[in-house]
Amino acid sequence: MKTNYKKRFISKMAKVGILCLIMFSTSPILHAQGCVDPTITSTGGPGTICEGDTATLTATHDGEVINWYDAQTGGTLLGSGSPFETDALSSTTSFWAESVNNAMGTPQTGAARVAPAGNSSSSVVAATSPWGLAFNADEDFTINSVVVYLASANPGDITVQLKDNTLAILDEITISCPAGNSANPVPFTLDLDFFVPTGTDYNLVASISPTLVREFSSGHPGFPYPIGTLGSVFGGTINDNDTNATLYYFFYNWTVTPGETCTSDRAEVLVTVTPSPAAPVAESPQTFETGETLADLEVTGENLIFYSDEDGNNEIPITTVLEDGTTYYVSQTVDGCEGDLLPILVQLNLGVQDESFGSLTYFPNPVTTSLKISNSEVIESVIVRNILGQTILTKDNGSLEFEVDMSALQAGNYMVSIFTKFNSKTINVVKK
């Protein structure tokens, strides 16, 4: 299937007669004329993903590029290339791959005004530069060449620019041209090879020039002039302002080449999205006894995962010792997909433990070197664990006061469990 394509392409066509010496050009290399419909031989994807995940899709093909759409025909272009990563998906979605080959169409000659009717001429004046024509492009094409009529007795340079509707220079070329004749201006071909994407209010202008033929409204029928079947020249432009609507500046007998694209049949890649499971079920707050862990909490769900933060960035083991007044977060995983987090506040079960630690003091917190602990009941031992529940150090004591050396520990949060003969209490300490 062949349609117009939106991709830069340039043709290099041989010209009969005098050739310009190109001093500067930004033109790229051409595609060969004609194209062949490509084929997609295979596609791939994850098959099934969890809700909120992205999918990576692939396609094997013999075209220049692979494009991805949201429909079998028409639709929206989602991206290009293989592999291609989708946005996060919330439901089962079909993606459609299309392979593309690009080439040039058939050149069209005689576009714009073919030739002037008189010999009125002027060179570009620096104070009002540039001079030229304003035009629209109904589809992508390349301006291969234009003809100017030289009226100067001396050779000179012409700098031709293609500008978009913001007056940004899309392409530029400087060409050295021979002498002409004011009484009988000499036609001269400028090879431009300027690519023009579909759009409006382009300017083809000369910023400097030798003396060239341009026509007043008394000498030409009037705008617009068709650019073959690809667009139209709608007016003259001077000093980057399309206000010279009656004057036709310089550029005659355009040769233009439309773009052509060949595409494959679209191939579907289906991504099945598994909905996220609900959060597990549990009461909050829950009470616990000293020394109990996450495993002792009453939670209904499958494949539970606990976290210390509400964003689910820090997973903690189920052996983590519970800390009074702390909120833990838990999710369940069903069919390989993890659901939302459920917060659970835990509170120490009050009773004889209050009597054991009624006068407990500890300082400083945060601590830099040593943590000083005192209590009205004898402290038998102290265990320090990190936030993963791993034991970092254990110290026996046997007195009412105790000092824990934490100078060697890394900065962070630690759980310090204090044991009396019959009870224990865990406190949260920050190491600076």
Automatic annotation (TrEMBL):
Keywords: Signal
Keyword Signal recorded: yes
Domain Ig-like: 39-103
Signal peptide positions on this chain: 1-32
InterPro entries in the record: Ig_7, Secre_tail
Record domain Secretion system C-terminal sorting: where: 363-424
Pfam families in the cross-refs: Ig_7 (PF19081), Por_Secre_tail (PF18962)
Keyword Signal in annotation: yes
Protein name in the entry: T9SS type A sorting domain-containing protein
